[in-house]
Amino acid sequence: MEEKSKNHRALLNPGEENELEVFGYKTQNLRRAFCLIGFVLTCGVLLLAFIWRPQWWVWANCIPCALQEADTVLLRTTDEFQRYIRKKVICLYLSTLKFPISKNPEELLVVDRHSVINQAVSKPELKLRYIQVQKIRYVWDNLEKRFRKVGSLEDSNTCYDIHHTFGPGLTSEEQEVRRLVCGPNAIEVEIQPIWKLLVKQVLNPFYVFQAFTLTLWLSQGYLEYSVAIIILTIISIALSVYDLRQQSVKLHNLVEDHNKVRVTIVVKGKGLQELESRLLVPGDILTLPGKVSLPCDAVLIDGSCVVDEGMLTGESTPVTKTPLPHTENTSAWKSHSLEDYRKHVLFCGTEVIQVKPSGQGPVRAVVLQTGYNTAKGDLVRSILYPRPLNFKLYSDAFKFIVFLACLGVVGFFYALGVYMYHGVSFGNTAPMALLLLTVTVPPVLPAALTTGIVYAQKRLKKKKIFCISPQRINMCGQINLVCFDKTGTLTEDGQDLWGTIPTADNCFQEVHSFASGRALPWGPLCAAMASCHSLILLDGTIQGDPLDLKMFEGTAWIMEDRKVNHCKFGMSDSNVVIKPGPKASQSPVEAITILHQFPFSSSLQRMSVVAWLAGGDHFHVYMKGAPEMLVQFCRSETVPQNFPQELKKYTMQGFRVIALAHKALKMEKFSEVESLTREKVESELTFLGLLVMENRLKKETKPVLKELSEARIRTVMITGDNLQTAITVAKSSEMIPRGSQVILVEANEPEECAPASVTWQLVENQENGPGRNEICIDIGNSSVPDGERGSCYHFAMSGKSYQVIFQHFNSLLPKILVNGTIFARMSPGQKSSLIEEFQKLNYYVGMCGDGANDCGALKMAHAGISLSEQEASVASPFTSKTANIECVPRLIKEGRAALVSSFGVFKYLTMYSMTQFIGTSLLYWQLQLFGNYQYLMQDVAITLMVCLTMSSTHAYPNLAPYRPAGHLLSPPLLLSVSLNVCFTCIVQICAFLYVKQQPWYCEVYRYSKCFLDNQSNFSTNGSAERNWAGNATLNPGSVLSFESTTLWPIVTINCIAVAFIFSKGKPFRKPIYTNYIFSLLLISALGLTIFLQFSDFQDIYRRMEFIPTITSWRVLILVAALAQFCVAFLVEDAILQNRELWLLIKKQFGFYSKSQYKNWQKKLAEDSTWPPTNRTDYSDDGRNGFYINRGYESSEQIPKEKLELEGQATEQHFWSRL
């Protein structure tokens, strides 16, 4: 159907996370009329089907057509879920604007030649077509024949375009055009009306089925149970509606103030104009007078400012923003240099806390994105439209419900057959058949399945772990790999200064220790530490990055923020001035003025400043950053020859090492400095030395990692810090156990004459000398001993190597990941990518970080745990108010308990349905069924109470070395239900047949006289005989019989028994007796059932619709029920829950896990050439992604023929891409 018309299909957001397929359709009136008739004829059932399946609505009402002609589009996600969304195509007419618009196709509507608006408006009609998908507006591009996002400036604009096209401001006419096309600059979260939320809940397929069930039961007189279920359903729906409403209100309040900001913009030809922020459009010039909350994303073009990005990054550290440079190259503004473009962008929702005009007027920025296209809009959309969960439990549960429903359909036809065979009228047959249909799917199922999650959420809240995605709690029970950030997560957030190692004459000098108490001596190194930072003075307090703050405090200098006037250099500006403090060492320089900053970027791993030393006649550049990165910008003759060894000496001890550099700028005017590019400033520097900082492990880190290791949960470190430091921290925290080998994986990009390469180097531990508590890292030529192959080795790599392997050695990636433990110098994007790659190997991944650069990874993981209390933590499913990793095992324990509880409740409800189904089917054989109060006892007093209390058992305090089953359709769980169904089926059928063999038995509704005669044999009350005799003759569907009296206690005791059997405690939950309410409930229910069975009270028997039987028969029924319980308990506990037995069965029959990572582990364990050590492999991208190990021979030494032969003979050196 979707291929009938040309240009019928296109992609929306190609290559992005929210990629969608879009199909064009045109509505046909005749089809619509037929559908309306269908709605009426099916009493709304067809309409419900269309609501649940929007694609059916489109296919029924419309015909396929080209997208440019469509009035309706059908969108389909490109992920594994393939969800459909229906949207109407809306038309806008620019002729509605109050000023004339040129209809000449050659004339641009807006000044930006790259803008999609110019291509989206059809002339001369001045018509524009758009769709609104997940709060984002997409307009139809008539040139490219596809829908394109609108509401932001095009990425193809150059720096020159940004400055010169938008710098003067937009005309008021162009603003109106953009306003109409792009929509308002507002992040509006509608507070959903209660009636709308109610309708949405009630139209859930399960509630619709439940409404049908309850209607049927009420029509048959099952008043009490129906009312109980109705009350429970109303409470459940009310709580859901209340919760959704509260979330809606909370989110609305979170963004409400965003839409009420007053801003000042520059209008071309009119000057400054104040207006509401909702009227801003992309391209407007925004002026920033001082402190303000940003209502849009904007790129800074004049002046600089300091912003608090806590809302986005999770860290309230001030960030300095610099203006977009005035370059005239033709490349896109985001890629004008290697610099991170984010340093020029002011993000929506962040707070400007300080502005620094350039001297040419106020701080100005060009509006980049508005509304939901902004950073804050994206954050809100991630909450409104979360990524769907791919968890087997939920898909298995759906399959199980479908199976139960199919069984109900079988029961329906069975009932039809039996009743029609006995000649019962259709009016009586239909309700009874439908009744059996509804027995198999318990109406309490939705409430029961969420109960365990609710209890777990409350327990987590008590432990200060908050959750915004409760469905992920069950997923936490399957976590088998946890990734940790290092700084602030495994180690203390703050750094302690250890010492400096200055250089002179190309050699490292004596270490200056801060512990000595001596002031840092004056010199270029001291000047660099005092000035090369992004600290600001706010209300008399120095604020900024903790590392910068610690480094600055180490100099004992002080900061002032004042107006400095240096006419000599042609500058007059508000700059940060640094002066020696009372405790600082003597300095010939009275003050240092920071004139210009190139801020730190995690992708660049460095920052630099241009400063002026009071009394000097030129400017100075100071730079700090990662040592490996910084030396690339220094003159080689200034870097000591033993630099690598000196760096390793400290990083292998876990120290954080920062390198500093300097150069003098021979310039006379400040305006020349302002126009300098970062590439020009950061070149030909002089290496000054190293700053060594101590970063201690948190006291909770080691015990938690040990606990996770004992539970066989892999731990991985993903950090932006130095690789050697990360290895040392991993060893000291025992993330890498003692005795394990570490293999460094270093990959290099392809060069002109050489392909991409990957080198494997074995790291050896050696003591550095007697009495020294230091570890030296030596890269030797030894290899991993054959006896130690397996999991005794760990791969460590940098973000650069990860990127090269990802691009050029993709087939190697899974092999590295199954034993990769340390990933250092990772950028935020690489962190997210790594977690996604782990997920592809079928790991259930947890990620624990402190916000900042971890936000993307926290969202990508199955369970992201943020240790930050900032607003950004709403993008993470879990937030811990306790800033250490103790929250990780706690969350996993609660996840396991919730998962086991969900399985237990599901198994119980399945057994309860099957037990009732079997009993009811047997009674149907003779046109009978259980009584109203008999059902009420089973459904309300037992099942309802069990479902509400069964999941409240607390998590077991220790983590087991294995996970609970993650699939409902796994053999132990299926066998558990199947065998229990068999047991109850056998007992019920035997009881049903055996009672007929008793000498006192008679078919009550056929032989009322026989019934009276048998009654007289054991009844002690003559009046009771007469009372029972009056009710002896019954219609089809009657209750009173020996069969129902016999089967009811068996069914009821079985419900109690399976509730006990399926409430297993250790190893994932505490023992059942610790759940006092549940235990008391089971004991009470069992006592009440036995009491009702053995009591001889006439009123009880009349209400319960029992027939008195001899005591020996009642005892026999009880013994049979208890025997069934003993057999079921023994089978469940000794066989089905016997993990060792199942492992033995799997081994004997050759069953292996389907998980990718386990298959790789098995393959690699059998591979004698793995892990590779002390060798180099080269990519061969031209040969379908193969790579070859060329050992240590150079490409010149290997003849072409030899390479070809080697390629054919040595298979172990070839790996095809996955």
Automatic annotation (TrEMBL):
Gene3D superfamilies: Calcium-transporting ATPase, cytoplasmic domain N (3.40.1110.10), Calcium-transporting ATPase, cytoplasmic transduction domain A (2.70.150.10), Calcium-transporting ATPase, transmembrane domain (1.20.1110.10), HAD superfamily/HAD-like (3.40.50.1000). It is found in: Membrane. The keyword Metal-binding applies. Residues 165-212 form the Cation-transporting P-type ATPase N-terminal domain. It is a multi-pass membrane protein. Its EC number is 7.2.2.-. Keywords: ATP-binding, Magnesium, Membrane, Metal-binding, Nucleotide-binding, Translocase, Transmembrane, Transmembrane helix. Residues 263-383 form the P-type ATPase A domain. It comes from the Eukaryota. InterPro entries: ATPase_P-typ_cation-transptr_N, ATPase_P-typ_cyto_dom_N, ATPase_P-typ_P_site, ATPase_P-typ_TM_dom_sf, ATPase_P-typ_transduc_dom_A_sf, ATPase_P-type_domA, HAD-like_sf, HAD_sf. Residues 16-141 form the P5B-type ATPase N-terminal domain. The chain crosses the membrane at residues 33-52, 225-244, 397-421, 433-456, 905-927, 933-952, 973-995, 1046-1063, 1075-1095, 1115-1136. It catalyses: ATP + H2O = ADP + phosphate + H(+). NCBIfam families: ATPase_P-type (TIGR01494), P-ATPase-V (TIGR01657). Belongs to the cation transport ATPase (P-type) (TC 3.A.3) family. Type V subfamily. This is Cation-transporting ATPase. It comes from Equus przewalskii. The lineage of its organism: Eukaryota, Metazoa, Chordata, Craniata, Vertebrata.
